[in-house]
């Protein structure tokens, strides 16, 4: 018997050693996602005010992508695009469109792929990606990670006041609560946060890990609710308040707007969400910038603490860190506020990838290659040695970390969120020199009128605005399909980004640039088909109420 055991041990020893070696070689991942952070909100990206020494150092030790773009300039579809590596036109999940990621599609997300490959996975912070027939209430996401300490939708600056799951955190402010959970998830001692949904008592030492850290800052829902409480860090009370805060060069106060940037019958600016009305006045815009910069410095300090923790754990040399934002934000440029448009202020975001395993002499510190948020998932899987699902539309960025090369010639972006708040349906294609944007008719009922009528009728305003009927869901689907079937643009923009980076001069109607306009139209026709791809989106119908209930409640609203 002893001889048999000995023989078996000799047989399995090489296999065991091989597996152990494989586990040791696989990198850990920390993915950090901010909310509404434009490209220029860090020192390393040229901001003269905001202090981000840890992010600047991360960029210096890794690769800063200076030409990084999202796919959709609104939270939910952009975040789903990152998880599934698909354009919104492919995955079919839009903000307030009554749709959620189908379970089948979720299985191909990069967190699920890494978990299946043996990674310990954790998610902390904000989730804005509904999954399954019951969306946020399905419980699918909570079961998809080994450690879950997150709230669905907005967190606010004091997340304990919005989500019960955060109630046992020692900290009170969002960044610090999220940071507390991130450090807890990393610790290989017993987990401290009892409210965290977890399947183990502690993180196993012999497993590589994926830690997703998703903020709801510097988003307006977070900065608007900052109260400078006595218990808040001094960062959130006094930092930047004694400094001159410059506005954008093309900032226009509401009272000074003479011509709308986009025709008013296409972009219903008076229906804009009131959360962005601070851009109407210079002083309120500066106050919001101060809060956004404070949030960025808070996030920066957490990045420093995370890196210290990695060193303490002796895994810093094998942990890849990725940092980016779900989209940017307009802060009064052209008199506009918010997102859901395709100007650089909304689509151009920072992206940093730091792989400490790469030799310093080979690292590319700055890459101007055109990259997109859908490229993150295939990059992580490639680094982990995991096969990339055929459903992915992004590209592996690994080569760009060590070589000055290109992976695509054009970037495609889109906004399909046009059922509320006056946002126009639009699509854009761009290369490093030119950008082309096309808009479609906007016949949606005024959000401001809907709010007024619902109040007059005694109905719930949020349900009237955000509860989707089947008819409205079908409208959203038509938004995705009609341009492919020949729908005509009603307005076009053409910008020479190389000479006009602020997109101030529309050249679409200039006789001098008609050949370039026609060229970019052809590029758009090809890129939109690539973005749509084949097959139907794998989505589930999702609202808090049935379609029949919503139809009944909205029956009395003016059409």
Automatic annotation (TrEMBL):
The keyword DNA-binding does not apply. It comes from the Bacteria. Pfam families: Sulfatase. The keyword Disulfide bond does not apply. Keywords: Signal. Transmembrane segments: none annotated. Residues 27-386 form the Sulfatase N-terminal domain. InterPro entries: Alkaline_phosphatase_core_sf, GAG_Ulvan_Degrading_Sulfatases, Sulfatase_N. Residues 1-20 form the signal peptide. PANTHER family: SULFATASE, SULFATASE ATSG-RELATED. This is Arylsulfatase A-like enzyme. It comes from Sediminitomix flava.
């Amino acid at each position: 018997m002893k001889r048999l055991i000995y023989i078996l041990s000799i047989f399995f020893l090489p296999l065991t050693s091989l597996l152990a070696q494989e586990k040791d070689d696989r990198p850990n991942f920390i993915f950090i996602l901010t909310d509404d952070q434009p490209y220029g909100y860090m020192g390393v990206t040229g901001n003269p005010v905001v202090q981000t020494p840890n992010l600047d150092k991360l960029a210096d030790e890794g690769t800063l992508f200076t030409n990084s773009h999202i796919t959709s300039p609104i939270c939910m579809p952009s975040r789903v695009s990152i998880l599934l590596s698909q354009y919104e036109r492919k995955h079919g999940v839009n903000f307030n469109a009554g749709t959620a990621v189908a379970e089948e599609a979720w299985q191909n997300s990069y967190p699920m792929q890494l978990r299946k490959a043996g990674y310990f996975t954790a998610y902390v912070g904000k989730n804005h990606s509904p999954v399954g027939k019951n969306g946020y209430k399905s419980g699918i996401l909570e079961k998809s990670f080994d450690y879950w300490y997150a709230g669905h939708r907005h967190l606010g600056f004091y997340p304990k006041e919005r989500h019960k799951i955060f109630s046992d955190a020692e900290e009170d402010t969002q960044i610090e609560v999220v940071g507390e959970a991130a450090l807890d998830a990393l610790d290989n001692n017993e987990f401290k946060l009892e409210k965290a949904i977890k399947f183990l008592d502690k993180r196993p030492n012999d497993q590589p890990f994926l830690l997703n850290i998703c903020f709801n800052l510097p988003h307006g829902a977070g900065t608007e609710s900052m109260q400078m409480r006595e218990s808040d860090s001094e960062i959130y009370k006094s930092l930047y308040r004694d400094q001159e805060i410059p506005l954008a060069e093309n900032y226009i106060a509401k009272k000074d707007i003479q011509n709308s940037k986009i025709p008013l019958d296409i972009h219903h600016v008076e229906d804009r969400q009131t959360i962005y009305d601070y851009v109407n006045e210079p002083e309120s815009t500066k106050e919001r910038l101060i809060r956004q910069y404070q949030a960025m410095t808070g996030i920066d300090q957490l990045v420093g603490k995370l890196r210290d923790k990695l060193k303490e754990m002796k895994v810093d040399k094998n942990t890849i860190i990725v940092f980016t934002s779900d989209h940017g934000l307009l802060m009064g440029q052209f008199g506009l506020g918010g997102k859901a448009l395709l100007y650089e202020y909304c689509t151009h975001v920072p992206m940093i990838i730091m792989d400490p395993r790469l030799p310093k002499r080979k690292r590319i510190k700055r890459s101007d290659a055109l990259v997109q948020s859908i490229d993150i998932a295939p990059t992580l899987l490639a680094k982990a040695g995991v096969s990339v699902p055929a459903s992915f539309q992004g590209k592996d960025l690994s080569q760009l970390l060590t070589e000055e090369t290109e992976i695509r010639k054009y970037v495609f972006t889109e906004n399909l969120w046009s059922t509320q708040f006056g946002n126009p349906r639009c699509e854009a294609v761009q290369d490093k020199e030119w950008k082309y944007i096309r808009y479609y008719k906007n016949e949606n009922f005024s959000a401001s009128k809907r709010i007024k009528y619902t109040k007059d009728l005694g109905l719930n305003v949020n349900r009237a605005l955000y509860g989707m009927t089947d008819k409205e869901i079908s409208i959203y689907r038509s938004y995705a399909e009609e341009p492919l079937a020949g729908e005509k643009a009603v307005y076009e923009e053409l910008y020479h980004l190389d000479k006009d980076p602020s997109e101030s001069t529309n050249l679409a109607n200039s006789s001098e640039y008609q050949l370039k306009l026609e060229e970019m139209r052809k590029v758009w026709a090809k890129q939109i088909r690539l973005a749509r791809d084949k097959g139907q989106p794998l989505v589930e119908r999702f609202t808090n109420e049935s379609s029949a209930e919503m139809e009944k409640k909205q029956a009395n609203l003016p059409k």
